[in-house]
Design goal:
The chain is mostly helical and about 350 residues long. The protein has one domain. Helix content is about 75%, strand content about 0%. The chain has 18 helices and no strands.
Length: about 350
């Protein structure tokens, strides 16, 4: 019966309205359910290392998956209005700072992953989008993604999520603008300018039920890809939550450690993880004494400067441009880290 409801156009619209109250009910009672399981059913003692680690995992894993499912569903609907072709069209003819701002904002809602870096880059170059504007998009799209925002909201609250969005936009706009001013087009591989790629129909109209269906598909695709990273990240976070002394983390990544921010960026750049795997770890780092600025700098360097993306971009960019990209973004991340360590 549920399957038949999902297949019909009306059912695709009605089903979210039926499931939403169940979502809120489960989310609201998740903490008491976790307490009951760990301390009553499992008979564990509150305050012990193992019980605290198990409690952290049982509470955080379903919490994160619930948040991801809800937010990604709505993001999937929004994305139907922002195809890569429409994005390229919107950025055509945009110059300097205005283009950097628009590209960074579009990067948040446009589908993007490392594997799509090359076709997006080719499409932007073909339609005359300036190099700096292109890089603003390529920075914002992976770094300020819905997974990162949802996880930050769930683990830290809406204030930290907004800080992350704001600082991520600053880095994307600032780094793209700097790269544009440096006039580095000579370090793009020559074959890029000779490539022509096809354009899809920009005037395609979708029914609202089709957009709802796209929301379901986005949930299935993204949650299906990241749930294991979420689990692994929370396992590591749970271990740190239960066993890592707060004094140790504060001495390594604390607010008063002058080298903490650059060190965290240098460590984060060669690492490969996505938001789903790294943010639960960052949550525990902060809980154990790492400063907010240092933790944000580490997280941003891992997400925005991932090694696989650099390898993929090498197909279209020469090494001097890749190193310039890493350097400019890395400096922007360090500025954010130092600033938030100073303010908070």
């Amino acid at each position: 019966m549920l399957n038949n409801l999902f297949k019909s156009s009306n059912g695709q619209i009605v089903l979210p309205l039926l499931l939403l109250p169940l979502w809120f009910l489960f989310y609201h009672y998740l903490e008491p359910i976790t307490n009951w399981l760990v301390f009553s059913v499992f008979g564990m003692t509150k305050g012990e290392h193992l019980s605290e680690a198990i409690w952290f995992f049982i509470f955080e894993f379903p919490k994160v998956l619930l948040l991801l499912t809800l937010i990604i569903f709505f993001v999937g609907i929004i994305r139907t209005f922002f195809t890569p072709e429409r994005t390229r069209k919107a950025l055509e003819g945009k110059k300097t700072f205005t283009g950097n701002i628009m590209a960074s904002l579009l990067g948040i809602v446009t589908p993007f992953c490392s594997c799509s870096a090359i076709p997006l880059f080719l499409g932007f170059v073909e339609t005359g989008v300036p190099l700096g504007v292109t890089f603003s998009f390529l920075i914002a799209a992976p770094m300020i993604n819905e997974v990162a925002v949802v996880l930050l909201y769930g683990l830290f609250g809406w204030q930290t999520a907004l800080i992350y969005i704001g600082t991520g936009l600053f880095i994307a706009i600032f780094a793209g603008w700097i790269i544009g001013k440096l006039k580095l087009e000579k370090w793009i591989e020559p074959w890029v300018f000779e490539t022509k790629i096809g354009q899809n129909n920009l005037d395609e109209k979708l029914k609202f039920s089709d957009r709802i269906k796209s929301g379901y598909g986005t949930v299935k695709e993204i949650v299906g890809k990241v749930w294991l990273y979420v689990a692994l990240g929370i396992v590591v976070g749970a271990g740190a939550h239960g066993y890592v002394p707060a004094e140790f983390m504060a001495s390594l990544m604390g607010k008063d450690v002058w080298y903490a921010v650059p060190l965290s960026v240098l460590i984060g750049i060669p690492l490969y993880s996505n938001a789903a795997g790294i943010i639960p770890i960052v949550s525990v780092l902060i809980e154990k004494g790492a400063s907010l600025g240092t933790a944000l700098a580490f997280m941003m360097s891992v997400i925005a400067l991932s090694l696989p993306e650099m390898i993929i971009l090498r197909k279209v960019l020469k090494m001097p441009l890749i190193f310039t990209f890493i350097g400019v973004v890395g400096v922007g991340i360090m500025i954010v880290g130092f600033l938030f360590n100073y303010i908070f």
